[in-house]
Write a structure and sequence with these properties.
There is one protein chain. By secondary structure, this protein is α/β, with parallel strands linked by helices. It folds into 2 domains: about 270 residues, Alpha/Beta hydrolase fold, catalytic domain (Rossmann fold); about 140 residues, no CATH class. It is about 40% helix and about 10% strand. It is built from 16 helices and 9 strands. Keywords: Signal. This is Alpha/beta hydrolase.
Length: about 450
């Protein structure tokens, strides 16, 4: 997930300011990123809701389209650079012959249904400008995996197949529980976020709405408490770090980014998205792995979720599993950001449906895996959709060496791997081990009742 923006942006976020909607512009021909084939034509513009977009069409277009949902969420205002950066990152899809389209979304901050609407709006724009593609594939990366999964559920006739890579697939109401745990465990050991001399607030807020703390300031506190990524630490810093990592099961290299999310993005969700209502809870959770679990469990801050806030976050972002088109996922086994056990939650959410193939790689990355693997996954998905013959993890892996001859980025598939249950990695809340977290019926009931989730 993209790092949280800092500095003066913190004040903007605290005030809940977002970019206003603009008059629609484009699509207009623009310069293509250097990573694309030289004969590609690129377009850019801004839709009526204020979302920027990028579109790329290769000269040898196969008449199929990939619509991309990006991760994050970014907390700053939307910019055209978001879309061109994504186009560069996923240029392999254009090199595979597909047209590609990606949206910045209309605003920064959390909002899965908002992002899903902007993704679908972009698909419609491409159809209106360039005609109906032969096939339309939906791709989501990181939090964009949740966005794409939700988009496929909300618009089942718009997409022929779905590719989810490094996806946050446990949804919002459970997918961030390990960051809730990090927020309270960190404060138990460090006591500097907030400090005793600073205004106090419940930790589920992430950060006070009016705080001017920056990412650099937060990292300084992390370093102060744990000697984070330092060659030398005091014994107290080492024990603090060991306990935090052991209890949360977070890798040290990713600790700062997870704490950023549990600070700045939690503030966005709670303050801007839910009107200062709390969607998170940790009562009933037993923390283990520290040098003194009894003291930790007795002293850590506890709280219950506001039922209406949890409902709204669930309605906005939880996956119901109601998708009928082919879905292929790809996830690094040692993903430090979206734990691979998210895939177990997604499989359980889809239940007995036979339209899911999950592939895993031995990489330890989140934001970008091998282009040779992305090409193999997209080819397998397209073949499945075209012929009805479902691929296997082994067949996807077997196709990779041929693609690596073209891309040279390596093949790291492990077709034998199966992830452990989500609850083996993330402390389940009472009643929180059944999937899906949001059933299709409950989603429909809330819709009938006028539940809005998080406003766009």
């Amino acid at each position: 997930m993209r790092a949280v923006l800092a500095g003066s942006l913190s004040v903007v976020l605290a005030l809940g300011l977002t970019s206003p909607a603009a008059a629609a512009t484009g699509p207009e021909v623009t310069a293509c990123p250097a990573a694309l084939p030289a004969d590609t034509t690129c377009y850019g513009g801004q839709d009526a809701n204020g979302a920027f977009y990028a579109i790329a069409i290769p000269k040898a277009w196969n008449r199929s389209l990939v619509v991309h949902s990006h991760g994050g969420p970014d907390l700053g205002p939307p910019t055209p650079a978001r879309t061109t950066d994504d186009l560069t990152r996923w240029s392999v899809m254009v090199r595979e012959g597909y047209a590609w389209a990606g949206s910045s979304y209309r605003r920064g901050g959390y909002g899965t249904r908002m992002a899903a609407a902007d993704t679908e709006n972009l698909r419609k724009l491409v159809v209106a400008r360039f005609g109906q593609p032969r096939k339309t594939f939906l791709h989501g990366q990181s939090w964009g995996g949740d966005v794409a999964a939700k988009t496929a559920e909300l618009h089942p006739r718009s997409y022929d197949a779905v590719l989810l890579t490094s996806g946050v697939l446990a949804g919002g109401s459970r997918g961030y529980d390990y960051r809730v745990d990090l927020r309270v465990v960190y404060q138990y050991y460090c006591g500097n976020h907030p400090r005793p001399t600073e205004p106090q607030y419940p930790l589920w807020m992430g950060l006070r709405a009016d705080s001017t703390m920056t990412s650099a300031g937060l990292r300084a506190r992390l370093e102060e408490c744990t000697g984070y990524q330092s060659a030398t630490r005091t014994p107290v810093q080492q024990r603090n770090l060991d306990d935090i990592l052991a209890v949360t099961k977070i890798r040290e290299s990713a600790l700062a980014s997870h704490l950023n999310f549990a600070t700045f993005t939690f503030r966005d969700i709670v303050h801007n998205g839910l009107g200062d209502r709390n969607p998170f809870g940790n009562k009933g959770v037993h923390y283990s792995g520290s040098h003194d679990d009894a003291a930790l469990n007795a002293g850590v801050e506890r709280f219950d979720a506001d039922p209406t806030a949890r409902r709204d976050l669930s309605y906005d972002s939880d996956i119901t599993g109601a998708v009928s088109v082919p879905v292929l996922t790809m996830h690094a086994i040692d993903d430090p950001t979206a734990f691979v056990e998210h895939e177990s939650a997604y499989r359980a959410s889809l239940g007995p449906r036979r339209n899911l193939v999950q592939t895993f790689t031995t990489e330890a990355e989140h934001s970008a895996l091998s282009d040779s693997e992305y090409a193999s996954a997209l080819q397998a998905l397209a073949g499945w959709e075209r012929t009805g013959r479902k691929p296997t993890p082994a067949s996807v892996a077997a196709a990779c060496p041929a693609n690596d001859g073209r891309y040279g980025t390596g093949c790291y598939f492990d077709p034998r791997y199966t992830p452990a249950p989500y609850a083996s990695r993330v402390n389940p809340r009472p009643g929180g081990t059944h999937w899906p977290a949001l059933t299709p019926l409950q989603s429909k009931i809330w819709e009938w009742q006028g539940v809005k989730g998080i406003a766009p």
